[in-house]
Design brief:
The protein is of the alpha+beta class. It has eight helices and 14 strands. It folds into two domains: 15-130, Probable inorganic polyphosphate/atp-NAD kinase, domain 1 (Rossmann fold), CATH 3.40.50; 136-300, Tumour Suppressor Smad4. The strands form two sheets. Strands 4, 6, 7, 8, 9, 10, 11, 12, 13 and 14 form a ten-stranded mixed β-sheet that branches. A four-stranded parallel β-sheet has the order 2-1-3-5, with helices on both faces.
Amino acid sequence: MTATNNTATGQTTTDYTLFVNPRAGRGGAPRLAEAVARVLRAAGRHCDVALHPSPEAALAHAQTLPQGTAIVPVGGDGTVSALLPAAVCTGRPFGLVPAGRGNDFAYALGWRRWTPERIAERLQRETRALDVLRVTLGGRTRYSLNGFGMGFDAQVAAYAAEMPRSLGGFGSYAAGVVLAFRDLRQQALTVTVDGAEVFSGLSFLGAVMNGRRYGGGFHISPEGELTDGRLELIVGRAVGRAGLVPLIARLLFGQHLKHPRVVYARGQRASLHWAVPVKLHLDGDLHPATGDVQVEVVPKSVRVLGA
């Protein structure tokens, strides 16, 4: 039986299903999931652990759960994104067991350490309604809690995905930055925010964020808030390799928003049109190159436990 407690701040739940990405956490995600499940069961909660052969199969399962059962991804930001459609605008409680390389969404929620006991304690807290980004690319709609990047940082993500898992999220992304310097390309980009053009010209990077960082530690949108109903747009104007080095250093610490080669804007909707298709990463997962992306905020549309 699912128990809920409706309050001004959210609801709690006693039923959970943990959806495990078996490759996450250097293969340790299943062990972490079982450890969290044991703590929840010891507290009198009902908890199932599910492993599926694909994200699509996991999502199909999540969409069949009773309304009050919490959907809890066990993995990184990509695992969270894959299961998000089952929770957006449904009222279903949504949780998180951080087990990826970067865990940038967990960072946005203020998580700094995640032992099984700490995770279980968070999952037993009330929910808070958070904003979600609805992203349309290649004729498909995706949802994101953290954000996406195109151009240089997507190339970085592609290289990072090839790095040994022992480097971790930040180490892999830093190595990817070094390798992506040799492939630096500037492409024509036009960007609108809430219908107004905010940039048109050569660019090496375009990012739209809900959270504050990606790549396990690069603070691309240091002023991002998960409940303000606004997205954060960051565009990098054309720059040479020599100029990119200090700019990346500023980005690492979130000190780039006033840099003359950076365009920063906030709003509810944005569109990015590239003259040629460029690579894109969304919540850490790579997607085929595309030239057109539309994104909008869906305010307070997912209820996250312990947020």
